[in-house]
């Protein structure tokens, strides 16, 4: 049984390789700024935009805007553990109107012809980092039925140093924090009994 599972996963990763390469090339070309008013010093602006959507593949662009350069951290929790991606809003927006960072969220699914499971692969990519997670779901489950994107649509303004859910996969949240408290948040997550970061 273990050998059979390993064979299925090997086929899964091979099938994903070319698909993800195409999607990454597509997202690299889509880098248009929002061009909206700069947020205040104690706020950040977050936008989650669909770039490519199909029955078994999705590409989203997360844009984080701040008045001054600062840190951010994304956390995607799953039954196989948590994936974390961190970076800085270190890119000056066009016209010098604040600072921003972009993170790509890629979701792709492969359903082997044999077996009772589908494999959904999630990739977070930004600031030269790539975080990959794979989830097992019932066969023929489609990403659009398991992926929620609460930050999709118009740009939303949020307080700095406060965790915000930007979406979820199979009921498990993807959270974002922007501000100087991200290191405290990381420590708090590593120690469940630790006090939450100060606001």
TL;DR?
The chain contains 3 helices and 12 strands. It has 199 residues and is α+β, with helices and mostly antiparallel strands.
Strand and helix layout:
Layout: H1 2-28, E1 43-53, E2 57-66, E3 71-78, E4 81-88, E5 91-92, E6 99-110, E7 117-126, E8 129-138, H2 143-146, E9 147-148, E10 156-159, E11 164-169, E12 172-178, H3 182-190
Antiparallel strand pairs: 1-2, 1-10, 2-6, 3-4, 3-12, 5-6, 6-7, 7-8, 9-11, 11-12
Task: Supply the number of structural domains.
Answer: 1
Envelope shape: elongated
Structural class: alpha+beta
Distance, first to last CA: 49 Å
SSE string: HEEEEEEEEHEEEEH
Query: Which strand-content bin applies to the residues?
Result: over 45%
Number of helices: 3
**Which regions contain 5 or more consecutive residues with pLDDT less than 50?**
27-35, 193-199
Number of strands: 12
User: Strand count, sense and closure of the main sheet?
Assistant: 7 strands, antiparallel
What is the C-alpha radius of gyration, as a whole number of Å?
18 Å
- Roughly what percent helix? 10-25%
Mean pLDDT figure: 77
């Amino acid at each position: 049984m273990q050998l059979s599972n390993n064979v299925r996963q090997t086929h899964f990763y091979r099938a994903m390789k070319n698909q993800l390469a195409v999607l990454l090339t597509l997202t690299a070309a889509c880098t248009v700024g929002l061009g909206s008013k700069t947020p205040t010093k104690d706020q950040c602006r977050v936008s989650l935009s669909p770039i490519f959507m199909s029955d078994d593949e999705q590409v989203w662009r997360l844009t984080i805007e701040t008045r001054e350069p600062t840190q951010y951290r994304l956390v995607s929790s799953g039954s196989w553990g948590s994936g974390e991606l961190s970076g800085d809003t270190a890119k000056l927006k066009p016209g010098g109107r604040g600072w921003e960072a972009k993170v790509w969220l890629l979701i792709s699914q492969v359903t082997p012809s044999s077996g009772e499971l589908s494999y959904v692969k999630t990739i977070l990519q930004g600031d030269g980092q790539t975080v990959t997670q794979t989830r097992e779901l019932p066969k023929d489950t489609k990403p659009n039925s398991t992926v929620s994107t609460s930050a999709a649509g118009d740009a939303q303004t949020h307080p700095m140093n406060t965790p915000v859910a930007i979406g979820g996969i199979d009921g498990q949240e993807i959270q974002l924090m922007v501000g100087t408290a991200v290191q405290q948040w990381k420590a708090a997550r590593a120690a469940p009994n630790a006090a939450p970061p100060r606001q």
